[in-house]
Design a protein that fits this description.
By secondary structure, the protein is mostly beta strands. It has a single domain, classed as monomeric porin ompg (Porin, Beta Barrel). The chain is 13% helix and 53% strand. It contains 2 helices and 15 strands. The chain has helices at residues 3-30, 170-175, and strands at residues 38-46, 50-51, 54-55, 61-70, 73-82, 88-98, 101-113, 116-117, 135-144, 151-161, 182-192, 195-204, 215-230, 233-244, 249-257. The longest helix has 28 residues, at 3-30. The protein is globular, with a radius of gyration of 20 Å. The two termini are 37 Å apart.
Length: 258
């Protein structure tokens, strides 16, 4: 995958959204009710950061989100910051949604893990050299069903950057070739009166970032509940029980959304 193509694609998305945003702001002077620009700002406070069957940071985690959307386009940033060690992650993404399908390009940046440098040769943020960078760029496609059939399907593959040196393929490791680590997930949402729960299973078709062989790496359930604090405020609470059959690990994570 050509890095310049990825950069150009992200720039084009940003330009489109920025142009649409300016147009929307001009229109809002005439009629503020017609403004379609949406801003999402929030955070999760989690007891653990568990992602795709692995524990990142081994500590409580603050996970803020900032996103701007206009029509079918969305760009944003998501981060994970450990409270008791030096794990840090900052992810930028661009998403285009058409009906039930979303195309997503994500730039994962992880400069350090538990106080030690990432395996990348150069962890500086603005280094994007394929063989040196601490960035990993993933292309993914997601299907999200309707309320009547709340099924979701996700498929993602790393196409550039720090998806290297996993130790499973001597030829790839010595040439620092991309593993193209892939992840597939299916999930379904159930409703229980005023509460909801997600059942999910994640699979990797080969060795790489998610495991040392083909297999299921992420299966579990996440429950959601709102706890009434006052007449005007409810606290969103969520808890996840997650198993990774390939590594024989189990996790339970609890969090709140603000």
């Amino acid at each position: 995958m050509n890095l310049s193509f990825l950069k150009q694609s992200l720039v084009i998305l940003l330009v489109i959204i920025s142009t649409a945003s300016l147009k929307s702001q001009n229109n809002s002077e005439k009629d503020s009710s017609k403004c379609k620009l949406k801003l999402n700002l929030g955070t999760d406070i989690m007891s653990r950061y568990i992602w795709r069957g692995a524990d990142y940071g081994n500590a409580p985690s603050i996970q803020p989100t900032l996103a701007v959307s206009m029509g079918n386009f969305e760009v944003g940033c998501w981060s994970a910051i450990s409270l008791t060690n030096y794990y840090k992650e900052v992810d930028l993404y661009a998403k285009y949604t058409f009906k039930s399908l979303s195309l997503i390009i994500t730039d994962y940046y992880v400069p350090s893990v538990n106080g030690t440098s990432n395996a990348a040769p150069d962890i500086r943020y603005f280094v994007y050299d394929d063989k040196k960078t601490a960035h990993s760029i993933e292309a993914s496609l997601m299907y999200k069903g309707s309320e009547k059939f709340p099924l979701w399907l996700l498929g993602g593959v790393y196409v550039y950057g720090n998806d290297k040196r996993w130790g499973y393929d001597i030829k790839k490791d010595t040439t620092e070739a991309t593993y193209y680590s892939s992840y597939l997930e299916a999930g379904y949402t159930f409703k229980f009166k005023e509460n909801t729960a997600d059942l999910f299973v994640g699979f990797t078709p080969t060795y790489g970032a998610y495991g040392n062989e083909m297999g299921i790496v992420n299966v579990g359930i996440t429950g959601y509940r709102k706890i009434k604090i006052t007449n005007d405020f409810e606290l969103p609470l969520k808890g996840s029980l997650i198993f990774n059959p390939q590594t024989s690990n189990v996790f339970f994570a609890l969090g709140i959304t603000l």
